[in-house]
């Protein structure tokens, strides 16, 4: 048998290697440059063309004045488009949803054809946990059905005194600041603490007591709030690393910002796990003593979940492992305190900018308080201007910026095929500031607009602060109640004055960010209202 010379073998191996490398290079060129521009079924959708050749719109997004600014400019350029296409990193396809019809298809009609994108899981799951927000399909349906009972009108009624008590604590703290200093206070930190206190009672059934220990330490060990602040509100390099980690996992890098995050996150989870295990022991002891549990009588999330675990029959109870419970607690702590705190920050800024509206709101609130110093929910809901004011704050300055999804399968939206894996971005601001929906004055703060909504603005889907459809925010009613109660306390007792920047449009925002937050916080001067 004849054999090929050794040089021929070597040449064949080199040729095969070269062909393999050429195939890899060709595939990358196709994916990066040929497919997105000439093959993609999304290529004919309107969208920006000023992409970076490799990073898409990422650089433009990071350089913009706010997390929503690029998307708003595209919406204003194509206000009647259903979808706007742009490039993500490595020129992957992404679409911005701009019409009510497209939102309804994605969030209602075909809601389970979409899932949370992997980058979002990497970005926030290690912070907020893989709770209800990240559950998909039947798991989401089951979890939501179980958790819905905790947000029933009866449970909210039981929480009303908690909200009112914490609002009074906030008022007392502001009184101290006014009495002992110049009344200057940083709102982001202040409101974050009060809302975390409220969520401590709701989610854990305990008093975190952060209001009474602002700036304090527990020995040499940081308090729960200090660790939580480190995780949720990183500064400088920490913000950059958090954003990059959503694209490429980099938490392993040995830099100080990563070490601080890891230690703080570990401390938060450890403290919560201790509380969970203690509650499990309490419920186990109750069960061993022959006691039954009725979740209708439970007011906090943790006891509710543990009771479901040990007293529910069948698979529902079996799913609440200690890990699952921790994830749910993390999710509700994050979702329940950061968004409401952000809404309060922007509400205060709008009170400063619109003293006439603040005066009108105070008159309405004081009218109720004179009749009932501690009003019930019916009394609070009767305040029409307060309700309008709260909704207009959320329309104009919605704290939650993005609703991100990924097509879990090929799906057609408004006649356009979105291939599996397509990133889909929805932003409340895109609907709330669309002049074809809310009119030419959509950028103005006008609470009275809610008295007479017309055209598309009258559609429930024109208000996206809590999303819509089967995955609408489960805590929507709770959010509105606590938001209005704290506004009532603030407006009836204090006036606020701007320090430096007085206009909303001049406030520098954190970017990138999952929440609409002022960079460096927002310092104002509080003054007690003259009686």
Descriptive notes:
This is Cytochrome P450. Heme binds at residue 473. This protein is α+β, with helices and mostly antiparallel strands. It has a domain at 129-400 and 465-528: Cytochrome P450 (Cytochrome p450, Orthogonal Bundle), CATH 1.10.630. The chain contains 20 helices and 10 strands. A 5-stranded mixed beta sheet has the order 1-2-8-5-3, sandwiched between helices. It has a 3-stranded antiparallel beta sheet with strand order 4-10-9. Helix 5 (118-128) crosses helix 10 (237-245), helix 11 (256-288) packs across helix 12 (301-311) and helix 11 (256-288) crosses helix 14. The radius of gyration is 26 Å and the shape is globular. The N and C termini lie far apart (110 Å).
Q: Brief overview, please?
A:
The chain is an alpha+beta fold.
SSE arrangement:
Blueprint: H1 6-39, H2 58-63, H3 69-77, E1 83-87, E2 93-97, H4 100-109, E3 114-115, H5 118-128, H6 137-147, H7 153-180, E4 184-186, H8 187-204, H9 224-232, H10 237-245, H11 256-288, H12 301-311, H13 315-318, H14 322-353, H15 355-371, H16 377-381, H17 384-396, E5 403-407, E6 411-413, E7 416-418, E8 423-426, H18 428-432, H19 435-438, H20 476-493, E9 494-498, E10 523-528
Parallel strand pairs: 2-8
Antiparallel strand pairs: 1-2, 3-5, 4-10, 5-8, 6-7, 9-10
Helix pairs in contact: 5-10, 7-8, 7-20, 8-14, 9-11, 11-12, 11-14, 14-20
């Amino acid at each position: 048998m004849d054999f090929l010379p050794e040089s021929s073998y070597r040449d064949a191996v080199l040729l095969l290697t070269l062909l393999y490398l050429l195939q890899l290079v060709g595939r990358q060129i196709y994916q990066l440059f040929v497919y997105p521009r000439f093959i993609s079924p999304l290529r004919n959708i309107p969208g920006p063309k000023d992409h970076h050749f490799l990073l898409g719109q990422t650089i433009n997004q990071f350089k913009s004045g706010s997390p929503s600014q690029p998307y708003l400019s595209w919406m204003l350029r194509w206000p009647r488009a259903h979808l706007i296409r742009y490039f993500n990193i490595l020129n992957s396809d992404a679409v911005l949803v701009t019409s009510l019809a497209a939102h309804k298809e994605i969030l209602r009609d075909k809601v389970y054809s979409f899932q949370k994108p992997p980058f979002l899981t990497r970005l926030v799951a290690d912070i907020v946990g893989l709770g209800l927000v990240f559950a998909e399909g039947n798991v989401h349906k089951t979890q939501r059905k179980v958790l819905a009972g905790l947000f029933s009108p009866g449970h909210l009624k039981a929480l009303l005194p908690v909200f009112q008590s914490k609002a009074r604590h906030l008022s007392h703290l502001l009184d101290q600041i006014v009495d002992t200093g110049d009344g200057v206070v940083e709102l982001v930190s202040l409101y974050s603490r009060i809302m975390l206190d409220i969520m401590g009672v709701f989610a854990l059934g305990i008093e975190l007591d952060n209001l009474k220990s602002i700036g304090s330490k527990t020995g040499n060990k940081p308090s729960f709030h200090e660790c939580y602040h480190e995780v949720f509100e990183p500064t400088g390099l920490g913000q950059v690393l958090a954003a990059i980690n959503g694209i490429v996992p980099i938490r392993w890098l040995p830099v100080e910002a990563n070490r601080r995050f890891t230690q703080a996150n570990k401390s938060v989870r450890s403290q919560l796990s201790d509380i969970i295990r203690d509650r499990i022991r309490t419920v186990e002891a109750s069960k061993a003593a022959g006691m039954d549990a009725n979740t209708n009588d439970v007011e906090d999330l943790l006891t509710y979940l543990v009771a479901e675990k040990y007293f529910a029959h069948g698979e529902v109870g079996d799913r609440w492992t200690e890990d699952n419970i921790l994830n749910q607690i993390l999710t509700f702590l994050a979702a329940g305190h950061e968004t409401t705190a952000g809404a309060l920050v922007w509400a205060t800024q709008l009170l400063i900018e619109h003293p006439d509206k603040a005066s009108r709101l105070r008159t309405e609130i004081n009218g109720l308080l004179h009749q009932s110093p501690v009003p019930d929910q019916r009394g609070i809901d009767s305040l029409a201007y307060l309700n309008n004011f709260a909704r207009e704050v959320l329309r104009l300055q919605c704290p939650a910026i993005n609703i991100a999804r990924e097509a879990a399968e090929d799906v057609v939206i408004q006649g356009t095929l979105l291939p599996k894996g397509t990133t889909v971005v929805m932003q409340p601001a895109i609907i709330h500031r669309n002049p074809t929906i809310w009119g030419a004055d959509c950028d103005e703060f006008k609470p009275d607009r809610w008295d007479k909504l017309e055209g598309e603005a009258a559609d429930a889907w024109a208000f996206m602060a809590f999303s819509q459809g089967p995955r609408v925010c489960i805590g929507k009613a709770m959010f509105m109640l606590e938001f209005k109660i704290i506004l009532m306390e603030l407006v009836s007792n204090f006036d606020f004055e701007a320090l430096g920047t007085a206009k909303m449009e001049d406030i520098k925002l954190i970017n990138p960010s999952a929440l609409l937050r002022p960079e460096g916080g927002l310092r104002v001067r509080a003054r007690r209202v003259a009686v």
